[in-house]
């Protein structure tokens, strides 16, 4: 059997970081298995590189295109969950907003049994990955592989500036940097763009590593099972264009397949709740009832406002400004994120009303928890995905309240020169029960799926604070699924941080 020191399953956001960092030692042989194809068409490649073109990638050939099971909190709707399927993974699709999360998110991880993951401990890894152009705070990172460009310094859209002015008019504080000491307030996004192009995990980490002779990328290679000798993970079985292959890991297997596919791979390999494994006649290797549980995601909805004239076309990522606030002063950090998008976020409304802009209110500290479970024992079948959106009354109420705040923002003097008629929810939807029903009918995924192989030491924990899978050897899970709780903001930066820290742990022999 072919052998490598490390096998990385999934060349997505986290897998790209590990590939680059672990291959820095030329004596270490790294194999990366990626389910998606090695490349894509010139047209899709251009769209990946163009920051404003991300909406056109959803549903394209480079998207896994998951759908959730019917969501009771969202009027029984099945929610579309895009995920990238090619080298670079979802870092090829995301909207490029760089938000670390609030310090209390990571302090909360540490308090829940993840020793070494408090904000002061993870800060050096955020700084290591970042190359921020401006100096908006004491904690910024310089010189790392991921550029952070301040949208406000690059000819932003006038409607984005109106959004910030509107929030200020309503009394929300201003902040210079959502990643600085004051996350709360309104301000400009930092975005991962360099020379006008998407510059993410693929460009910053994966492509430079692939130039090294000790790195092998095996594309169109979907891992189907982890191989064990006793309790030690010794390799991976994978499907390459319909043929099953096996490969051996002399040191470790690192599962980086994302919050939906990582728990699926563990379950297929006999790591999970024995009752669930028995349903599919999968022999139990390790009884870990938390595999696939604790799955959660941010949830958002949208208010679309008609404008008196077209907003100039976007040359950045279409979302240049935001507002973070606490729904309750007792919160340790902002639990709500309202992003401004200077286009209509809904394709149908947008086609009929090109002159419109959107505010997207989102719950970024949701209480609802769902799961990822196998649909069958066939590794090529998609799993059942249940984010349980608005599964609690509190999540619903906070989102309804945020829609009211979005309407207030459009009703300010700052926007008076722009706005005409509200297109969504629309003037016919009043407050109260109608607005609640609107949220049930229109809330959607914020695409920040996490938590399904959570780190910790409690009964539901799947990996320990070194990201090693409990009860077995030679196996780690390193991606969004390891987050015990998703940070309160877009989570790509946090995922890169996890992988940077994991590379450091492995190099230190931990
Ligand atoms: C439309 C959209 C917009 C977003 N916007 C933002 C944003 O602005 N800011 C932000 O911070 N976050 C954003 N996100 C979220 C962020 O992009 C993701 O959370 C992050 O990229 C996930 O990283 P990951 O490493 O966990 O998984 P992924 O990047 O999804 O990597 C998983 C990789 O594993 C591969 N794979 C899966 N199964 C297998 C298998 N069995 N064998 C081999 N390979 C496999 C996949 O093809 C993929 O390449 C957005 C996401 C989406 C979809």
Question: What does the secondary structure layout of this molecule look like, with pairings?
Answer:
Elements: E1 3-9, H1 13-22, E2 30-33, H2 42-49, E3 66-67, E4 80-81, H3 103-111, H4 119-129, E5 130-132, E6 146-150, H5 158-169, E7 185-188, E8 190-191, E9 193-194, E10 197-198, H6 201-210, E11 215-218, E12 221-229, E13 232-240, E14 243-255, H7 258-268, E15 271-272, H8 274-279, E16 286-287, E17 299-300, E18 303-307, E19 321-325, E20 336-341, H9 347-352, E21 356-363, E22 371-373, E23 384-386, H10 393-410, E24 419-424, H11 433-442, E25 444-445, E26 475-477, H12 492-507
Parallel strand pairs: 1-2, 1-14, 2-11, 5-6, 14-26, 15-16
Antiparallel strand pairs: 3-4, 6-8, 7-19, 9-10, 12-13, 13-14, 17-21, 17-25, 18-21, 18-24, 19-20, 20-21, 22-23
Residue share in β-strands: 15-25%
Please give the largest β-sheet: 8 strands, antiparallel
Bound molecules: flavin-adenine dinucleotide
**Uncertain segments of ≥5 residues (pLDDT<50)?**
none
Shape: globular
Rounded Rg: 22 Å
Continuous helix count: 12
**Roughly what percent helix?**
10-25%
Which class do the helix and strand fractions yield? alpha+beta
Mean pLDDT: 97
Per DSSP E runs of 2 or more residues, the count of β-strands stands at 26
Q: Termini, distance in Å? A: 27 Å
């Amino acid at each position: 059997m072919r052998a490598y020191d490390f096998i990385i399953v999934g060349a997505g956001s986290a897998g790209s970081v590990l590939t680059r960092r672990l291959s820095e030692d030329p004596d270490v042989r790294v194999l990366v298995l990626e389910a998606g194809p090695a490349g894509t068409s010139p047209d899709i490649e251009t769209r990946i590189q163009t920051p404003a073109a991300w909406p056109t990638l959803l549903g394209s050939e480079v998207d896994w295109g998951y759908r959730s099971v019917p969501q009771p909190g969202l009027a029984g709707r099945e929610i579309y969950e895009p995920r990238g399927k090619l080298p670079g993974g979802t870092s090829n699709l995301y909207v490029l907003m760089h938000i670390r999360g609030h310090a209390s998110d990571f302090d909360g991880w540490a308090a829940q049994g993840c020793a070494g993951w408090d904000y002061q401990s993870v800060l050096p890894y955020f700084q290591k990955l970042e190359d921020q152009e401006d100096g908006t705070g004491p904690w910024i990172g310089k010189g790392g592989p991921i550029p952070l460009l301040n949208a406000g310094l690059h000819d932003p859209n006038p409607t984005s500036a109106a959004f910030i002015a509107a929030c200020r008019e309503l009394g929300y504080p201003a902040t210079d940097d959502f990643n600085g000491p004051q996350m709360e307030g309104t301000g400009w996004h930092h975005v991962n763009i360099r020379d006008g192009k998407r510059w993410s995990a693929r460009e910053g980490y994966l492509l430079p590593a692939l130039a090294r002779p000790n790195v092998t990328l095996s594309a169109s290679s979907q891992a189907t099972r982890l191989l064990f000798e006793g309790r030690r993970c010794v390799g991976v079985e994978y499907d390459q264009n319909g043929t099953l292959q096996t490969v051996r890991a002399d040191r470790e297997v690192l599962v980086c397949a994302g919050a939906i596919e990582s728990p699926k791979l563990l379950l297929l390999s006999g790591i999970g709740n024995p009752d669930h494994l028995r349903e599919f006649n999968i022999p139990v290797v390790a009884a870990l009832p938390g595999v696939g549980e604790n799955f959660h995601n941010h949830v958002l909805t949208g208010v679309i406002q008609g404008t008196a004239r077209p907003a100039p076309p976007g040359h950045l990522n279409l979302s240049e400004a935001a507002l973070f606030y606490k729904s309750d002063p007792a919160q340790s950090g902002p639990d709500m994120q309202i992003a401004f998008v200077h286009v209509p976020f809904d394709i149908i409304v947008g086609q009929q009303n090109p002159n419109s802009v959107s505010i997207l209110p989102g719950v970024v500290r949701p209480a609802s928890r769902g799961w990822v479970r196998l649909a069958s024992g066939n590794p090529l079948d998609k799993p059942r995905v249940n984010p349980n959106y608005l599964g609690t009354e509190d999540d619903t109420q906070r989102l309804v309240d945020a829609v009211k705040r979005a309407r207030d923002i459009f009703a300010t003097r700052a926007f008076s020169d722009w706005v005409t008629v509200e297109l969504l929810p629309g003037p016919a939807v009043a407050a109260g029960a109608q607005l609640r029903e609107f949220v049930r009918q229109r809330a959607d995924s914020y695409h920040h799926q996490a938590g399904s192989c959570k780190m910790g030491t409690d009964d539901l924990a799947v990996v320990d604070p070194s990201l090693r899978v409990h009860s077995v050897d030679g196996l780690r899970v390193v991606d969004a699924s390891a987050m015990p709780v998703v940070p309160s903001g877009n989570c790509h930066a946090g995922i890169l941080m996890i992988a940077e820290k994991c590379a450091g742990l492995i190099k230190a022999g931990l």
